[in-house]
Amino acid sequence: MSSAAGPRPTLKHVGTGVLAALREAIASGLLRTPVDRESLVGLGIRHQVEAIEHALAGHRMAACLAIFDIALAERESRRPTPELVWTGPDVPVGTARDTAVVLRSLFEGAQESVLLAGYSFDHAEDVLAPLYGSMRTRQVDARFFIDIPQIERRVAVGAHLTRHVSKFLAESWPFGEPRPRLYYDKRALAPGPPYCSLHAKCVVIDGVRAFVSSANFTQRGQERNIEVGVLIEDPSFASYLAGQWLGLIDARIVGEYVA
C-alpha cells in the first residue's frame, strides 16, 4: 500500500537484514551520506525507501551508524523465537503446534488485515470460515494471491481465469460477501515457455505475524500429509514479507480479479 493510505512508515517496517546491510554499506563507504532515494534504489531497496529516507534524513555517517546500531540492538534484545507448526503423525518428543489450530487462531485473531498467498484450495470452507467471521464482524481486509495454472495455447484468457476463480469461490468460499480481494500472476495468462507458478506459501496477519508453511488448504494438507511451517511474531519481518506481495500489485506483475 502507498504511504498516503496511513501513517508515515518508520524503521520498524524495515527488515532486520536490510538494516544490517545498510549499516555495512554506509560503514564501508559503499553508500554515501546523506542518503538519498537514488542511492537506496541502486542498492536494490524498493519497498522501504520512504521509511529509510525519513529516519536518516540529512544525517552524516556517524549519526546514521548510531541510528542503525540502536535499532539493531533493540531488535536483538527482543528477537522472537520462531514457532514450529506441523501437520502429520504425532511423535513422543514433538512440541510443534498443529497447522489447522494455528490457522484458526490466526484468522480468528485478525484485527485489520490478512494477506494469504500461494496455497492450493480444495473444499477449504472449514479452514477459511474463521477468516470470514473476522471479515464480517471486524471488517478485516483480506487479500489472496492465488495460483492460476498457466494457460495452454488456444485457450480463451478470460474464460480460463474466470473458471478457476469461480471454482475457488464455489468450493472454498461459499459464504458470499464479504469476500477477499483476489490477485493472480499475469504471466500465467500467456502460454509457455517460459513457465511460471505462484508457488510461495505464506500468511501475514495485521502486518505483525507471519506464517510460512508447506501445508495447502486441503484435507490432505491440513490433516494427513507430513507438512512443516514456521510462525514468526515479528512486526518488521511480517511487514517486509507483506510488502513483497503488495509490491507485485504496485509493479502490476499481478492483477486483481474483478467479476
How would you describe this structure to a colleague?
It is a single chain. By secondary structure, this protein is an alpha/beta fold. It has helices at 16-28, 37-42, 49-56, 61-77, 99-109, 125-138, 157-172, 219-224, 235-250, and strands spanning 83-87, 97-98, 113-117, 141-145, 181-185, 202-205, 209-213, 227-233, 254-256. It has a nine-stranded mixed sheet with strand order 2-1-8-7-6-3-4-5-9, with helices on both faces. The model is unreliable at 1-5 (pLDDT under 50). The protein is built from nine helices and nine strands. The longest helix has 17 residues, at 61-77. α1 (16-28) runs antiparallel to α4. It is 41% helix and 16% strand. The chain folds into two domains: 3-77, no CATH class; 83-256, Endonuclease Chain A (Endonuclease, Chain A), CATH 3.30.870.10.
Considering the chains and any ligands shown, give keywords for the structure.
9-stranded mixed beta sheet; disordered N terminus; Endonuclease, Chain A; 9 helices; alpha/beta; 259 residues; 9 strands; 2 domains
Write the layout of secondary structure elements.
Blueprint: H1 16-28, H2 37-42, H3 49-56, H4 61-77, E1 83-87, E2 97-98, H5 99-109, E3 113-117, H6 125-138, E4 141-145, H7 157-172, E5 181-185, E6 202-205, E7 209-213, H8 219-224, E8 227-233, H9 235-250, E9 254-256
Helix pairs in contact: 1-4, 5-6
